[in-house]
Amino acid sequence: MSSERTELAELVLDVADQVPPGRVTTYGLVAEAVRGATGHGHPRHVGTVMASYGGEVPWWRVVRADGTLPRQLRERALERYLAEGTPLTPLVPVRVDLERAVWDAPTQWRLPLADPRA
DNA sequence: GTGCTGACACAGG
DNA sequence: ACCTGTGCCAGCA
User: Fold this and answer.
1) Which pTM was predicted?
2) Nearest nt (C1') from A43 Cα
3) Max mean pLDDT range (A1-5, A27-31, A71-75)
4) How far is the CA of A24 from the C1' of B3 (A)?
């Protein structure tokens, strides 16, 4: 079945949409989850998808590996974090406290793997 | 088909 | 804390 967006994009958006409020996941983890389901997917692709369709999902819950976001989005995301109580580091620059807020998609939300028993 | 771009990750300086 | 280079690969001109 053909999809307007790519299959990859659909999965990325799906994962992003599953992240609970107050928690976040990373581009790498999303890519890992998608990769488990499709065999394809890298952090770079996740970023590309988010840039195109991020508006449809809670984009601020997908952060970089060190808990930061792109400059342009940093301020806007900070508002969201304060609003939903996302754990932030007390140090500057403010970034998400991944140790407490990370939501491991591959573990918390099992994607339909090609071979569940593998 | 060819080449550049990118909401990345990681290592260095 | 910042910027640069490298590896990665789908999407687009």
Assistant:
1) 0.86
2) B8
3) A27-31
4) 35
